Amino acid sequence: MEIINRRPRMMSLARKLRRENKTVGFVPTMGALHEGHLSLVEEARRMCDVVIVSIFVNPAQFNEKDDFQSYPRDLTADAARLTEFQVDYIFAPDADEIYGENFSTYVYVENLTDTLEGASRPGHFRGVATVVTILLNTIRPDFAFFGQKDAQQAVVIKRMVEDLGFETEIVVLPIVREESGLAMSSRNALLGDEERQKASIIYKGLKAAKIAAKEGERNPERLSEIVRETIETEPLANIDYIAVVDNETLEPVEKIGENAVLIAVAVSFGKVRLIDNTILNRKQ
Ligand code: AMP
User: How far is it, in rounded angstroms, from Cα 84 to Cα 155?
Assistant: First the structure.
């Protein structure tokens, strides 16, 4: 496994792989790797000849300086995990390598990015869409792997890739959870022991709504209340939003019908903000 820091090196290597007709799988991450990331790596390994993982804590997608600074980083441990998982290359550029002097070009995906995470974190998706564009242009992978954990991100990236005609197929994989039900996240490392244990209430709320929907509840507001009532039983939990939206347009739904519906939540425990979601009516 080679760790690549420079963009020209990454580009020329990617060009060589294409000439050799290798299928390239790419997993973009911000590091502090956990089983959620590794599930993406495993699928990439299964599907592709060559696996490239990027580790880049992207300053452009953080709307709060503190959050960016406290974001966990551990390249040594990450590289060891990725060696175990037979990754071929890590692309770990620093910020200057991605955002050169006089950098001025950003990608803005309309409609999908002003709600949910976009409403709570202004500029977040502009940063995400821009860095993913740069990474896809640098590597030009056949497949790029994303987690359902960041549901809105997956919808935004799929839209962008279709709109801008990238030749990469986006693969979205299920949420990996801790035993308690808490969705795995690099930010979980910032929770105290008690908070981490209590944070499983988020999943319990989502599960309660899912069960209610299965039993026939069709009213999105009622489903949202069920999530809220469950999460509010935990005094340490501070709800930012609970949204029940169409999983493609991210518009609120009036009634749960046939289409896939996303229930997405953001909840803080102390200073740590967590997101999670579940999908109703997913057609397998
Ligand atoms: P991040 O390092 O947080 O930017 O995440 C990198 C990728 O891993 C994103 O596509 C995430 O959606 C995905 N990911 C993060 N946590 C999980 C999880 N618990 N299960 C599945 N995928 C995840």
Answer: 30
Q: What is the pLDDT of residues 124-139, one digit of tens each?
A: 999 999 999 999 999 9
Q: Is 185 in the pocket of ligand 1 (CB under 6 A)?
A: yes
- What is the rounded CA–CA span in Å between residue 132 and residue 144? 10
Please say whether the beta carbons of 240 and 273 come within 8 A: yes
- Ligand 1 contacts CB of residue 39 (under 6 A): yes
Burial 116-140 (b: 16+ CB within 10 A, else e): bbbeebeebbbbbbbbbbbbbebbb
| Backbone angle region of 71, left / alpha / beta, with phi > 0 → left and psi within -120 to 50 → alpha | beta
* Pairwise CA distance, residues 208 & 179, whole Å: 17
* pLDDT surpassing 90 at residue 34: yes
> Is the C-beta atom of 40 inside 6 A of ligand 1?
yes
Residue 85 reports pLDDT greater than 90: yes
How high is the mean pLDDT of the chain? 97
Distance 11 CA to ligand 1 centre (A): 24
Q: Which residues pair with 245 in a beta bridge?
A: 252, 262
In tens, the pLDDT along 188-231 reads 999 999 999 999 999 999 999 999 999 999 999 999 999 999 99
